[in-house]
Amino acid sequence: MPAAAHDVVIIGGGVIGASIAYHLTKRGVRDVVVLERSSLGAGSTSKNAGGIRLQFSSEINIRLSQLSLPRFEGFADEFDVDIQFQQVGYLFLITEERDVKPFEASVALQQRLGVPALRVDRDGIRAIFPELVTDDVRFGTFCQKDGHADPSSILNGFVAKARAGGARFREGAEVTAIDREGGRIRGVRVGDESIPCARVVDAAGPWAAQVAALAGIELPIRPLRRHIFVTDAVDLDHPIPLTIEFASSLYMHRESAGVLLGMADPKDGAAFDETVNWDFVPTVVERALARLPLLEHAAVRTGWAGLYEDTPDRHPILGCVDGVDGFIVAAGFSGHGLMHAPAVGELIAELVTDGRTSLDISPLAHRRFAEGDHVREHNVI
Ligand SMILES: Cc1cc2nc3c(=O)[nH]c(=O)nc-3n(C[C@H](O)[C@H](O)[C@H](O)COP(=O)(O)OP(=O)(O)OC[C@H]3O[C@@H](n4cnc5c(N)ncnc54)[C@H](O)[C@@H]3O)c2cc1C
Is residue 1 predicted with pLDDT exceeding 70? Predict the structure, then answer.
């Protein structure tokens, strides 16, 4: 006798897969299985900087953040987990003429949508973060509601609640094939094991295109290496915002007694490479020292690299795929998957149970690439 079909199989046990599993069980779907080839959170979820922000330049990204933010603020009540959410704000520093108009437009859009973001001049920046060098800064944008939290606590919260609701998480379970019958999904395979299901959610992060290819679907998602370095203790006796020097992509926030530094290496092309390039440290440190000279007394204590999952318009791909019934994508977050995980889990669960979503996610449909209808987002680092 063939095994009974599961309601939903989720491929990928990162924050997105776990959030979807939790929200499905919350909506009464009991037979949910998450297949993770490694261990839960082993992908980008355990590599990220924990940043959570409302300040985006596209309406759909702002809406996803607005749905997610209250969930992070109320995480302890909903999940009984302290995610150490510090709403210290995000401070963008604009130094280049080419970024002036886009950021002015972003703040105007954010304010129209109810985001309490502000344009701040140099005095305003110094009032928020006095130790920063601001001579070359044209202006900043700041939103106090933004901040950062602990990614693994967020993941653990979703996983525990999803399990309590009946979802099963299988680690060491790599999906090696996806079975289709004509235009319908029939199941997935983990090695020799066939797992029947009518619906599959591709939540495989940077590997989502490889997973989709198993079902004969092309996803324009490419892996891009991103580094993080953390310094030892610094002499800073007040909270600092998550600060982004937009032109160089350097960002920093407090991490224990030190400072976490992130920056994109323009030399990194698309590749599944998570090795740390220690030769990149001097470049990052040089930029960081120019912006925050007090780092002079701190040494880089540790570092790691993870993968962004980039799409051509740096927006996620959410929802069904034309021509393949039962295949749902939740991937391509282009560096913002942690902060959008609550909204994405909720919306994908709505799609599965109701066939529609409370927020219009059609701008993020897979078909937009075939139709050349990309979304525009300027504030990506
Ligand atoms: C350096 C860095 C900094 C970042 N900073 C931020 C930030 O500040 N804020 C923010 O919101 N986002 C940030 N991000 C992005 C964020 O980490 C991701 O968007 C998010 O973690 C995506 O979660 P996910 O669950 O989709 O993917 P992942 O966490 O990568 O999970 C996908 C899982 O799928 C599994 N998998 C792959 N193939 C298969 C298969 N065939 N079968 C079974 N399992 C499979 C993988 O093992 C993996 O565990 C950052 C990313 C990086 C790299």
Answer: no
